[in-house]
Amino acid sequence: MERPVTVMEKMCGTCKQVLPASEFHRSSKRKDGLQGQCRTCLGKQHSAWRSAIPLVMEPAVATKVCGGCKQEKSADDFYADRKRRDGLQCQCKTCTARHHDRWRQRRRSGESTVAESKTCNGCGETKPAAAFTRDTRARDGLQSRCKACTSAYFSAWSAQRRAALRPPAVAAKTCSACGAEKPAEEFRLSRNASSTDGLAPTCKACSRDRSAQAAKRARRFEDGQMIGSAAAALVRAAAAGIGIVPQLSNQLLAMQAQALVGSAPADAGASGTGGTTGQPPPASLAGSGAAETANGVPAISAPAVPSRTPAALAPAKPRSAFQSFCDATQAEVRAEMPAATAGALKKALSARWRALPTAQRAPFITKAAAERAAAAASAAAAAAV
To answer: Region (Disordered): which ranges (predicted)?
Structure first.
């Protein structure tokens, strides 16, 4: 039977610090209901004791007395435990299985007895069972701390972990979804190593609100970032040798052309080379490879990169040798596996690539090297301009 905690503070017998009762484990053998060492010192002592025990790879004894049935049995009747000095668990396999069966039956039947009240290990107060969270592993069916102390404990633990993980580099940040500037505490820590400020791009409220994500996409379009994406696709097409890109909508092309000259977006249904403004297209869009479309927007063969969105207009990454191999053999594998999913198709292509001899890989490796060299030359030329 557990003794009630009669003190609010106690001195640890090891570190000699006066600590609150919540920093000590319960003990039914002491008058005050608490152990003589605090949790930290007891944990260090236990860790040192466990570390001092060498790992036993093979049983050190031929027979052992079971702690459950008290019978002497051979080492084969016990499960291995490398942390014990004899390399065996304290109970035999039969007693261990019986104990687990009783535990499962008790959980399935719901026969666990729940105490009507309990003394919290955190605040030391005796509270009704409703103030505790259920715990099927405990004898009384309740956790050791009440709900309030548990919430405070995990809040402090989360704050310590947040500070130790990576402190934010800024005190405030503008949310990319709602556009409001908020303190750093309103953002979650970023798990992306490339984050410069150590915070997520959206605040906690917007990350839970799907309508805020739609507003973010709308602002991106208004700010011209979506137009920059269309121009990036044009640059990649020009680098690949494609003169006219019919896949891009004329509306996006018109908006990109007007953005380059600093005017308002042109109407997709208007006629004439200058859109609604009547201005001629800029020289960067009227090169020798330009062709006029039905709505008067020139098709771009080698568009100039706008200086306002340099990051969005980066050339496409060169394809690897494996990607070139997939392009060449994907149709064949798809014909052999018509009902295969995308994941199964990728696994089949990976298996073929691994089984491919080195001599047959050479053409794909050479092609990938040529693409990397061409991309490096294009980047050097763009930097020189």
So the answer is: 265-292
